[in-house]
Design brief:
There is one protein chain. The chain has about 375 residues and is α/β, with parallel strands linked by helices. It has helices spanning about 1-5, 25-35, 60-70, 85-95, 100-110, 140-165, 200-220, 230-240, 300-315, 315-325, 330-345, 355-360; strands at about 10-15, 40-45, 75-80, 120, 165-170, 225, 255, 265. Helices cover about 40% and strands about 10% of the residues. The longest helix has 22 residues, at about 140-165. It binds iron/sulfur cluster. Iron/sulfur cluster binds near residues 184, 251, 270, 293 and 294.
Length: about 375
């Protein structure tokens, strides 16, 4: 499958889960194979279960061995999931006692080996600390939620920086309302109807606004991948119902391959569209023009917005000009994202942060990214 991907010109490959590190040896072998075959952007991640029991004899040698084995591959990014700004809440959610202490002890070892893991936040109601329902039905006033998450995201970024992370990413809540999107069927267990990840549209608008207002404040000290233009597009989608940014390239240039069946799908959530076994005969390097906005899966949505203007400039510069004139705020945020990505070494998890380059994002970048529009009160 990797050989076919190389022939198709695939540039990025992500080994996701479940928990990929349940099969560490096979995972490292596959990462190594893909890198040697010529795929430049390879990423994988973990909940770091193997970092527990950090005081046990042999722990450090085991972790160093793993870090060295990963460093010997061409792995580009390694993410470690963190669900909350409160260590105890995170460990309880994951069922992994002591994992936060293990992560804190392991990060310097990984850094010594030339691997800079990213903290991967899956936004949920426990992100700002233990969730307490705002009303008996569990819903929260959007402005109260905005304040809660704005403080919560700030606490999260401080927390992971304190643990030693130099990079962070955000997964947006993956609850899909069956009534709104009846065609979405998860290929793998990355979505849930559990209240902990279920937000109404109005709540999502508040959460995305909070994220949009918090990221710029922490950009100078932590390499935060989440593009502001993408978060802005989601904030507008759920806030005032305006469609801005780019549709998802899932099924056009990004695909999901199920490791069990080796079948290909447009993404991890369009499970009813089985494209058959992966191979150049079945999956062309480019599919139909992108059009989907059915979910907020950051793996596909973020790069779609970030790469969108480059692709449009190449294929239809007139459409790009029209788009930027229609929503100059999107264009401004996108320009800032591109400059920031460059300052972050394009989020390579194999490079230490360039603190001087990041410091340049102090000041005007961190002011009011939402000033450009006023959400319509009471909008969905
Ligand atoms: S928005 Fe992207 S990830 Fe979500 S369902 Fe559509 S193609 Fe899939």
């Amino acid at each position: 499958m990797i050989d076919a991907a190389v022939r198709n010109g695939v540039q990025a490959l992500s080994f996701t889960g479940g928990e990929p590190f349940l099969h560490t040896d096979e995972l490292i072998e596959l990462v190594h194979y893909a890198g040697e075959a010529g795929i430049p952007y390879i990423r994988t991640g973990t909940n770091a279960f193997f970092l527990r029991n950090a005081d046990e004899a042999g722990w450090e040698a085991r972790v160093r061995g793993l870090a060295e084995a990963l460093a010997a591959t061409r792995l580009y990014t390694l993410w470690i999931s963190i669900d909350s700004c409160d260590a105890a809440v995170h460990e309880e959610m994951r069922g992994l006692d002591g994992v936060v202490r293990g992560i804190e002890r392991a990060l310097p070892i990984f850094h010594e080996c030339g691997i800079y893991p990213a903290a991967n936040l899956g936004i949920n109601r426990n992100t700002p600390g233990r969730w307490e329902a705002c009303t008996p039905d569990g819903q929260c006033d959007p402005e109260a939620l905005y304040e809660l998450f704005r403080t919560g995201f700030a606490r999260f970024y401080r927390f992971v920086t304190g643990l030693g992370f130099t990079m962070a990413n955000t997964c947006y809540p993956m609850s899909v309302e069956a009534a709104a999107e009846p065609d979405l069927v998860s290929v793998y267990g990355a979505s849930s109807v559990d209240p902990v990840v279920s937000f109404t549209g109005q709540e999502k608008a508040a959460v995305f606004r909070a994220l949009l207002d918090t990221i710029p404040l922490f950009r100078p000290e932590l390499r935060i991948f989440s593009p502001l233009c993408s978060v802005y597009a989601l904030a507008r989608h759920y806030g005032d119902g305006v469609t801005t940014g780019y549709p998802c390239r899932g099924g056009a240039e990004f695909f999901f391959v199920d490791a069990k069946s080796a079948h290909t799908f447009p993404c991890g959530f369009r499970g009813s569209e089985d494209l058959g076994p992966y191979g150049e005969a079945l999956v062309p390097p480019r599919g139909p023009a992108p059009a989907c906005r059915a979910c907020d899966w950051e793996c596909f949505r973020d790069p779609s917005d970030l790469l969108g203007p480059f692709l449009e400039l190449r294929h239809n510069p007139f459409a790009l000009g029209k788009r930027l004139l229609a929503d100059p705020a999107f264009g401004r945020l996108w320009c800032s994202d591109v400059r920031y990505a460059r300052a972050c070494g394009f989020f390579s998890g194999r490079q230490a942060p360039d603190t001087g380059a990041l410091r340049r994002f102090r000041g005007k970048e961190g002011r009011h990214p939402l000033d450009a529009y006023q959400p319509v009160p009471g909008a969905r």
